Amino acid sequence: MTNFRTQAIHAGYEPNDEHDHAAVPPIYASAAFNLGDALRGDALAAGELDGFEYSRVANPTVDALERRVAALEGGIGAVAVGSGMAAVTYALMCAGEGGGRIIAPTDLYGASVDALGDFLPQFGIHADFVKDINDLDEVESKIGPDTRAIFAETVANPSTEVLDIEPLAALAHRHGIAVIVDNTVPTPYLLRPIEFGADIVVHSTTKGITGHGNAIGGIIVDGGHFDWTNGRFPQFTMRQQVISDDRAGEWHSFGEKYGSAAFIKRIRIKYLRTFGAVQSPFNAYLSLVGLETLPQRVSQQVATATRIAEHLTHNPHVTKVNYSGLGTTPQYELVRKYFPNGVGQIMSFLVDGSPENVRRIIDGTKLFSYVPNIGDARSLIVDPAHITHREVPAEARRAAGVTDNMLRLSIGLEDVDDLIADLDQAIAGAY
Ligand code: PLP
């Protein structure tokens, strides 16, 4: 069972005795699980036996989602969390913990820029921002003794700039540094970054994975190839009580105990267990159902987005369309290499006129919902400078191309002609 469409429906869940043969993964709405007898309880707590104890650490519905997304991304394991931002910050903190530095572009989702530039520094984790993450000389010039990871979006929101993962990963690995990517926009249907050398993949499952705008969630997937004991990451080589048995005098570090799974185990055992941003079983269930149609939804959205982007290039009030899928940008070769099935359903465009014209376009759309989200079955419109990238400092906003005359679209599953007609009338009516 290796094909993506089959895995999207079946991976991670068996309708067997364990689940009373329920065809669809059930919602296990239970905070805790019976430990059985004292010996079983002790073995579960020691991690010697697979099973569930308490839903802050693991839950069977959430487990099915974790296994399914890990299979779809080609990872060795995953941990689902309460939101995409929990996934981003847990992954960055787990790599940067204890005074590390992260190299990143500013062309990122607004809250990720704020986390790296403003908030994580309060916890001793600092960012080195680069202008162009695909410029290997610029990236290499930022690598120092405390650098732990490079973080970027595989398709940036809202520019749709594409990440050249393979050479970046080769550079990072030469220096013993990990590559963490946010694969939210393309979803694993359009891109599987681990196959190109990424070490850790994060998602906001709120978007394309769930696909209906009805559940906030996030997930971290571990590719299982990175050596976290290479000397740059003291958190993986120090002995820790939570995975040791002091009564037996046995002490372990995450690296020594879990080897290639050290990162994802630390995310669950330290981050999820301590900071507790769990994904609810109900949201995991919605994501599991959403994933069943991921290939079909995304294929249609890519086809519609491509037609809309092309159509917008002919509108006299549209001065620029950002959609790497158009095949007209300097990134064309990268798009062909990494995205043979398209770059996804978001795009942005710039219009002439004043901020008043931008407001009138937003208010004039009838089919597009004015919603700060992406990857929904509904088509959405937003003005990033005021909404999704509001917390980004002006200079970084400019560097990411987020100007006041920019509008971002997330294309849904409506009829393409209806969507084009709606945009045409909204733009025409705004001037
Ligand atoms: N990463 C990207 C690329 C996003 O677009 C978003 C949200 O828009 C996030 C992360 C954060 O996800 P969430 O809203 O689920 O926390």
From TrEMBL:
Cofactor(s) for this UniProt protein = pyridoxal 5'-phosphate
SUPFAM superfamilies reported in the protein's UniProt record: PLP-dependent transferases (SSF53383)
- Per its record, what are the GO molecular function terms? cysteine synthase activity; homocysteine desulfhydrase activity; methionine gamma-lyase activity; O-acetylhomoserine aminocarboxypropyltransferase activity; pyridoxal phosphate binding
Protein family (similarity comment):
Belongs to the trans-sulfuration enzymes family.
| Keywords (A to Z) from UniProt | Pyridoxal phosphate, Transferase
Q: Which reaction does it catalyse?
A: L-homocysteine + H2O = 2-oxobutanoate + hydrogen sulfide + NH4(+) + H(+); L-methionine + H2O = methanethiol + 2-oxobutanoate + NH4(+)
The EC designation for this entry is 4.4.1.2
Protein name (record) = homocysteine desulfhydrase
Against Pfam families, the record matches this protein to: Cys_Met_Meta_PP (PF01053)
If you read the UniProt record, what top EC class would you report for this enzyme, in one word?
lyase
Identify the GO cellular component terms for this protein: cytoplasm
**Biological process according to GO:** cysteine biosynthetic process from serine; L-homocysteine biosynthetic process; transsulfuration
User: Residues bearing N6-(pyridoxal phosphate)lysine?
Assistant: K207
| Superkingdom of origin organism | Bacteria
Classification via PANTHER family? HOMOCYSTEINE/CYSTEINE SYNTHASE, HOMOCYSTEINE_CYSTEINE SYNTHASE
